[in-house]
Amino acid sequence: MDTDVRTRVSAYAIAVDDDRLLLARLSAASPVFAPGLWHLPGGGIDPGEQPVEALARELREETGLELSAARLPDARSYGARRHGVSWHLTALFYAVDLPRGAPVVTETDGSTDAAVWVPLADLRTSTLSPAAADAVRMLGSRSGHHE
User: Fold this and answer.
1) What is the pTM of this model?
2) Are 59 and 41 in contact (CB under 8 A)?
3) Using CA atoms, how far apart are residues 116 and 102, in angstroms rounded to an integer?
4) Fewer Cβ neighbours under 10 Å: the N or C end of the chain?
């Protein structure tokens, strides 16, 4: 059987407020990473869409929060296999500013089923997607903390 290989470019938000990181829990509709993992809000960039526009759209869908500002500190590549598809994902990581407020998933039947602010001290790599785990490491290296 031939393997279906797909490439995806996604924009993800690294949002920190009061030593908490905004995370979105992946649902069964997640195309790349396993459901149940905590992931960064964000997602695939549609054809013709600018990365920051995609990020703002995904933030609205997955958290109900409006993007105030975004800065691109890093990009990473990942390989994943899900539902017979071999994914090659390029993730653009944006440090973002968001208004204060409780996140609410507004998208129905999407790849996110929950969004919450999680204290950085409570994060466990085993419950995070590879991209979210990398974001936590990025935050740790900037603040001088180590896992």
Assistant:
1) 0.91
2) yes
3) 8
4) N
